[in-house]
Amino acid sequence: MRLAAFCDRFTPLVALDRPLGLRLDITGCAHLFGGEGALLATLGRWMQRSGLALRSAVAGTPEAAHALARFGRGGIVPPGQDEAWLRPLPVAALELPSETALALTRAGLRTLADLAERPSKALSARFGEDLVTRLRRTLGHEDARLTPLRPPPACLVERHFAEPMLDLDGLQEVVARLIAEAARVLEQRGEGGRVFEIGFHRSDGAVRRLVIETGRPTRDAKAILRLWRERVESLADPLDPGFGFDAVRLAVPVCEPLSETQPSLDRHAVEDEAVADLVDRLVVRFGRDRVLRFVAQDTHHPVRAAKARSAALPPAGSAWPGPIPHEPPTRPLQLFEPPQPVEAIAEVPDGPPIRFRWRRLIHDVARAEGPERIAPEWWRDGSSEPMRDYYRVEDSAGRRFWLFRIGFHEPEQAPPRWFLHGLFA
Amino acid sequence: MQPRPDPASLTDLRRHLAEMALRGAPAAVGQVSFGAPALDAALGGGIARAALHEVYAPATADLAAATGFAVGLAIRAAQERPILWVRQDVVDAETGRLHPPGLTELGLDPARVLLVRARDAEGVLRAGAEAARCSALGAVLIEPWGEPRRLDLTASRRLALAAEGSGATTLLLRAVVAPQPSAASTRWQVASLPSRALEANAPGAPAFSLRLLRHRGGLGECEWRVEWSRDRQSFQESDVRESDVRNRQAAAGRDETTLQPRASPDATPLSRPVVPFPADRPTAAGGPSSDIRRTG
User: Fold this and answer.
1) Where are the domains of chain A?
2) Whole-structure pTM over 0.90, yes or no?
3) Residue A68, SS3?
């Protein structure tokens, strides 16, 4: 994976070739590195430096290059000559299942040329469709696209340095310029980015990627730059230049249409905008699972009645059921999850407790209301939870609690258990 | 011979001074009133909107009450605008996590609340300061835990300045700590107060015992008893009997290690029937007299 990240500098289309290879789609990229030959040479030097042996080939289709690298001499196939280069290779180059390979050998078909001369219908009838497809792809009759490890971003801007860059301040400057450039590209396309990914390619091959996410599509260079600064400040381990960075790349993998709008004069819209900006800044600093909004859930179950959802996601969910007028709060402000066991005594078997001990402190109950019986959600799988009888109680100091009891006082049964589930204001 | 000052005129003078001090503050464009006449009168209309206020809970057990008071204040300050709540993770473990239906019960639509969960006090303060600078927010609630070294005079001054600049009422909610010097405009100590009982001795609306520890306008230490009315979205004076409260607080101080049912037969309270939830239950009209009433 690290190698794949490294090869990202040559082309965005890098795919893993399991078990031990990488495929790079260098269509239209090779000239940037001085042609296919120069690119291969560069790659070879890099690998040698990191102590890896490299077998490589460049060909018209990924399968052809793979077969050449593994079973041939490697090298660069001139365009259109794929078939000529590949015909002498053994059938093993197709990487078929071992029994098919064995069957082919038994039938006297040793090279790809032998196979190519047979009618494909007979081959597919005898050895399966798979063999023919593989053969066609390998010989360059049919082209299959790579499934890249990381899908190519919708918008990409990058800077390569002539010499490894060590100066972090200078680097900030470069990032600022990249952001401005990306903003221009996005503006031309009438789009805004939701995710910005800045990759730092170090000269020793390591790649550090930092991601900024925004709640709405944006192409405001200033806002992105501010988020970027937040991101850098919040890093637990700062950017380590090592022996210097030799490329910085800003990718915008997620884009959404964003039309040029006139700034609204409506106070609410302006405020919404300001809050969304604040959410973005907080998300960048604290992470998306730390900035939350509550979403109502349609259930009577006290614990599952509310869910906290990242504020970075678009708002969703139903409206909150309103309270009953003229009633005191029937649900606590703070909820313990899981409920805390308490020792309690009740004067009548099914009545509210008269006294309970929570956190080593005795509370004498002065007022109580209940029970409110809350049943488990029977439609949930494996919901064998017992029924709960909830009581709102107030102790003599005026603290209000939400207690519940599981079980009843019955002879020859375990005594009921009491739990403290929440605190009222 | 010097004439003794009339107590009423002295109160008037204090109020006048408090008002002047508030008017003199740079960004005292508005005030947040409590809705309780006596409280508002003493404070000269309320507390400054664009300022930092501290709410202390004297004990962990009172933190829920202090939180409720802060929510009430935030509701009055925000006026339909969003409220941002910064909470340190430890608070969830100590006092339970925030329960949105409970917010609804206090009259705050949870959809208006943004919650930021911070791992440490530094994160809490950072997020708090960032939020306090945002003028689109109605109120910011900051809830660190314990006595972080970071929360010093400088940090609170930063929060106060941010609030003054943006106009977002910033409330710092703290539990079980000794009040430290800070740049807050007011400092409140909030403890739970027995509520006005409803029919069948059910607990009533949230009630708080407030103690103003510090006031920028020069008001001395004062105490009030208020309750929060969700339907009116305001505080109102609570009329719980003084003696009743004192007796109960004395009783609550006991810390027993064994849990024994009361032995004396005449001390055992009468048994009560199971009380259903009537949807149209009127609040007890009798107020103080009804909280000793028992049915059954």
Assistant:
1) 2-138, 155-262, 334-423
2) no
3) helix
Written as six digits, the tokens of B51 are: 């300022």
d(CA B143, CA B57) in angstroms, rounded, equals 12
Per-10-residue mean pLDDT, chain A, length 425: 72 71 74 76 78 76 78 75 78 78 79 79 79 78 69 79 83 88 87 87 84 84 86 80 84 80 64 86 88 86 84 75 85 91 86 91 91 81 76 92 85 84 92
Report d(CA A153, CA A174) in Å as an integer: 20
**Per-residue model confidence (pLDDT) at position B255:** 41
What residues pair up with A372 in beta bridges, in sequence order? A390
- The DSSP output letter for A111 is B
**Contact A280/B at CB under 8 A:** no
CATH class of A155-262: alpha beta
Q: What are phi and psi of A350, to 5 degrees?
A: -105, 15
3-state secondary structure of A246: strand
Nearest to A418 by CA among A396, A381, A393: A393
| Residues in A touching B197 (Cβ below 8 Å) | 367
DSSP string, A303-366: TTTEEEEETTSPP--BPPPPPPTT----S-SEEEEEEEEEEEEESSTTS-EEEEEETTEEEEEE
Other beta carbons within 10 Å of B295: 10
Query: Which residues on B lie below 8 Å from A315 (Cβ)?
Result: 111
In chain B, which among 150-189 make CB contacts under 8 A with chain A?
A: none
Report the relative pairing of strands A388-395 and B52-57 from DSSP bridges: unpaired
| Spatial contact of B127 and A282, defined as CB atoms under 8 Å apart | yes
Closest Cβ opposite residue B67 in set A331, A364, A425: A425
pLDDT of residue B24: 40
* A275-279 CB contacts, 8 Å cutoff, 24+ apart: A275/B82, A275/B114, A275/B134, A275/B136, A275/B137, A276/A215, A276/A216, A277/A223, A278/B84, A278/B130, A278/B131, A278/B134, A278/B136, A278/B137, A279/A215, A279/A311, A279/A312, A279/B114
Kindly report the CA angle at B257 between B252 and B262, in degrees rounded to 5?
65
| Predicted local distance difference test score (pLDDT) of residue B287 | 41
User: For chain B, which domains are there?
Assistant: 37-237 (3.40.50.300)
Q: How far apart are the first and last CA of chain A?
A: 53
- Number of A:B CB contacts under 8 A? 256
* Angle at which helices A267-286 and A221-233 cross, to 10°: 30
Rounded CA separation B228/B251 (Å): 25
d(CA B42, CA B40): 5
Terminal Cα distance for chain B, rounded: 64
Please answer yes or no on whether B195 and A398 come within 8 Å at the CB atom: yes
Angle subtended by helix axes A62-71 and A129-138, to nearest 10: 80
In the structure encoding, which two tokens stand for residue B103, read together? 């917010």
Residue found by looking up tokens 């050998």 in the block: A105
Contact at CB, B202 and A320, closer than 8 angstroms: no
Strand partners, A363: A356
ipTM of predicted assembly, 2 dp: 0.73
Task: Give the H/E segment covering residue A131.
Answer: helix A129-138
* Residues above pLDDT 90, as percent of chain B: 42
* Residues sharing a CB contact under 8 Å with residue A332, sequence separation 6 or more, in sequence order: A400, A401, A402, A421, A422, A423, A424, B64, B96, B99, B102
Tell if the CB–CB gap between A335 and B97 is shorter than 8 Å: yes
Q: Which residues contact A229 (CB under 8 A, 6 or more apart)?
A: none
